[in-house]
Amino acid sequence: MSTQVRNNDFTIRIANVNGTGSASANTLLMKAFFRMGIPVAGKNYFPSNIQGLPTWYEIRVSDEGYICRSGRVDIMVAMNAQTYQKDLAAVSPGGYLLYDSTWPRDKQLAREDISVFGVPLSRMCNERFTRARERVLMKNIAYVGVLAALLDIDVEAVKTLLRESYGAKPQLLDGNQLAFDLGYDYAREHFPCPLPIRARAAGKTAGHIMVDGNTTAAMGALFAGATVVGWYPITPSTSVIDSFKSMAERWRRDPQTGRQAVAIVQAEDELAAIGMVLGAGWNGARAFTSTSGPGISLMSEFLGYGYFTEIPAVLINVQRCGPSTGMPTRTQQGDILACAYASHGDTRHVLLFPANPEEAFYLTAEAFNLAERLQTPVMVLTDLDIGMNDWMCPELKWDAAYQPDRGKVMSAEQLEKIEKFHRYLDVDGDGIPWRSLPGVHPKGAYFTRGSGHNRWGTYTEDAAEYRDLVDRLLKKWETARTLVPPALIDHAGQHRVGIVSVGTCDGAVHEARDRLAATGMHANYLRVRAFPFGSEVREFLDAHERIYVVEQNRDAQLRSLLLIETGVEQDKLVPVLHYDGMPVSADDIIKGINQDVLKGKAA
Amino acid sequence: MSYIAKPKVVHPGLPRNELGLSMRDYEGGMSTLCAGCGHDSITAALVQAAFELSLPPHRMAKLSGIGCSSKTPAYFLSASHGFNSVHGRMASVATGANAANNELVYVGVSGDGDTLSIGLGQFCHAIRRNLNMLYIIENNGVYGLTKGQFSASADIGSKAKKGEVNRQPPIDPCLLALSIGCTFVARSFSGDKEQLVPLIKAAIRHRGFAMIDVISPCVTFNNHEGSTKSYDFTRRHYQPAVYADYVPPAQEIRSEQAAGSLQAVTMHDGSRLLLHKVGADYDATDRLAAFGYLSRHQAEGAIVTGLLYIDENSPDMHELQATPERPLNSLPYAELHPGQKGLDAIQARFR
Ligand SMILES: Cc1ncc(C[n+]2csc(CCOP(=O)(O)OP(=O)(O)O)c2C)c(N)n1
Ligand code: SF4
Ligand SMILES: [Mg+2]
Known about the structure:
Number of helices of chain A: 19
Oligomer: heterodimer
Helix content of chain B: 25-40%
Strand order of the largest sheet of chain B: 2-1-3-4-8-7-13-9
CATH superfamily of chain B: Thiamin diphosphate (ThDP)-binding fold, Pyr/PP domains
Strand content of chain B: 15-25%
CATH superfamily of the largest domain in chain A: Pyruvate-ferredoxin oxidoreductase, PFOR, domain III
Strand order of the largest sheet of chain A: 11-10-12-13-15-14-21
Number of strands of chain B: 13
Distance between the termini of chain B: 57 Å
Number of domains of chain B: 1
Largest sheet of chain A: 7 strands, mixed
CATH class of the largest domain in chain A: Alpha Beta
Structural class of chain B: alpha/beta
Bound molecules: thiamine diphosphate, iron/sulfur cluster, magnesium ion
Shape of chain A: globular
Order of helices and strands of chain B: HEHEHEHHEEEHEHEHEEEEHEHH
């Protein structure tokens, strides 16, 4: 066993059964590190099930601030007998495993290269707690106590967190503190505490928060002034609406009248959800929906309608593992192409790609501006990893000067002055026509139709008029290219190798680049944040000889999109793909890149 | 949909309503439907109803799905915004539009295919939300626009033009609407303007989901012998149960208690609806009785028409949502965001 001390650089995995209330214990543990000033990330690997199936929670503690999945398990808390064998096998050599020794474990299962600690968690809790539910819950808090002793976690940080959570309920507080102490004392008495892997106060989390991206996306919508929501429940997007709802109750409710400045309509399906959003957008309210893969498939017809009739709409797609129902509680970036070209005919949609909860906040707010400025549906593509996991990010700020960009909307006064209003006329030459809202002025009336229409806003089946309109939409697309957030580029120097990635790959790419650089391989980095791609994307591709396109799907969808939309030479773009449903790790990327490098050497 | 601009010549002698508008101000483009199509008569009834109610056209919004029937919003109210949506999904668009602005009058036009087949789900759920709108089904028992397939409202035994016989039971939108809590259920016939116009007026004034199923023969694909949605068949089996008489708020009602066959309903805005009942025992405020009455007569092959059920007291979507009185789309941004202070308060629990 390695005795070399490693501070703030380890990964804990807790194996449990879902429905046993381990979530609050795991959050407590994660936040304890955060309160000690140590960068930390929590990832929940849970089943698509309500009770009784295996679930894992992984906490990565990293002084360097690496937030992606580490691909390692330094200490396993094996609370689930069902998965014990698998969990034991998952521990990295030199690591530790903690299990509930109330019941004997299979002697056949052993590993020489790790240390195993048995703690009679159930027995201790059964002795001290009487109610069945309490016994189950407190077992979880007890292993937090054990870990605190083993990893040298600041006990005061844990107790403060407990007081903050249960201060108002003394009985609960006492119970939790007792359970924590049971585990803590037992470990101190029986094991060599602390282990060589340790937590050390680091002062690196000031000015930061721990938050999931569904919450921040909802905050983005709240701050952008969204007033109409149409939605249908689907994992992993549901908590966007849950968060929005609870924040609306707090921030949109008039305490005097009890009325709430928002309509949140639970639709009968996703077709209706997006229909509602379009109806509201057409009528001048900021509206959004949130969904995941299967919902995108259902919304396709309406998305094409919104594109063709030019109605603002915001859609948050928290991507999950497809195809079909796929693995609803696993992450993927598998909807890039489906969203870019959603619906039949020549359609293209503006997409935004946040990489973390911080960006999910700002880009969701920005999506509303873009949707109204460009009069088109805008999709924010996050994924389960951003949406449902806890990320450390800088505190969010709101610009006091922010005013929503409502785009080109004719006021009653403007309508009064003009002779005749034409809905689809490109008056300004940027491909974006002016629109009018119902109820504002008699001269504003026009007929919105998904069938052929011309620049005057009337029906057409005329070849030239139709082309005129769809070509103008292309011109608008070019305008969109200049308005969407540009790709972020990190130029490390004059290197021939580049990495391109998107969304949640970002953390793993950062870590992979550091590690590759240590071995002498330097790569510049571009992360796309929007579709259409700005000119900087093409320039980056042109400037590098070999470009690794890192993404989390099987079919290299970002790469395909880059090839289609930039015309870059195909062989230059080397796919680095990860698509098993788990978030990508730096190892996955390094492996992919090294494979290509080796191939190059062999050739 | 086809659209031909209609020259607007207003005769000086044309009657004007309270807004000083003539009927022409409520018309739309020239219809491109088949001559004699029932849908055109419904268009005319809508124009007349809006004119008689003196509604400002730009404060109305018309919505539809896809079908011959759904084309008709291009033929009325050219001074209103229109939204010709996708097939079967008008109800959801209307829901969002209404959520955004509760002040406009929403007129939805759909077909039996658009509502009872592809759009059945959205129709039912708009009813359940008691969305404040007029929803007209222009019911011809066929898919007109795709050339004559049976729709879900075709009766058993009904013959298609080419002789095929329908063997599947129909969905009766009135019975369906009654069973899921619709607050205004009516049926009429495109050929009976006397009945239809007051019904439309009452439906517009109703606060909640007002559904009118209008039998509207398709002269091209479903007006032959053996069709149960033809002009002939409908006239022969037509059975009015109640005639509605819409009385604006200011107007006095003359003989409220005159006959046992008269039922007065006070609308939400204070206006009154006088229901002349054909059978003295019909009670348009009794959902169960209406259901029984309709079912009994349906079994006898009669097409019961009139205002079949009304409930003025159920909360509409906005009440259920507890939205403010001011339209959501008009709330100033300052009222909508919590500011940096709010943001800090929200973030306090993320540490
Ligand atoms: C998604 C989709 N499927 C099919 C169609 C083709 N379609 C157009 S109209 C129509 C039927 C319309 O029937 P109905 O609503 O009864 O209207 P009618 O023409 O009889 O007035 C169909 C199937 C379509 N437009 N969209
Ligand atoms: S096909 Fe039938 S429904 Fe369509 S316009 Fe002609 S008559 Fe009317
Ligand atoms: Mg029809």
